[in-house]
Design goal:
Helices cover 61% and strands 5% of the residues. The chain is mainly alpha-helical and 79 residues long. The longest helix has 17 residues.
Length: 79
């Protein structure tokens, strides 16, 4: 099952209601550009190109936050 975060206005509103982070925005944009389920390591390796000082822990924390937002939101499922 694929969760389309790019076309989900409720989820995007919730993401924007939390403290802004350029790294989080980059992670969300990366995920929105994908149709597969990239691993945290894949996300980390790609985001690291733009943010060389980002840690894998930061990626995991942001993924956990996004997961909680998805759980608490109505979102559009595809597939």
């Amino acid at each position: 099952m694929y969760i389309d975060i790019s076309n989900n206005s409720d989820l995007l509103k919730e993401i924007h209601m939390i403290k802004y982070s350029r790294q989080r925005e980059s992670i969300v944009n990366f995920l929105a550009s994908r149709t597969d389920h990239p691993t945290a390591e894949t996300i980390y390796q790609n985001i690291k190109k733009e943010f060389p000082n980002i840690s894998l822990g930061t990626v995991y924390r942001n993924l956990s936050l996004l997961e909680e937002l998805v759980k608490s939101s109505r979102f559009r499922r595809i597939g």
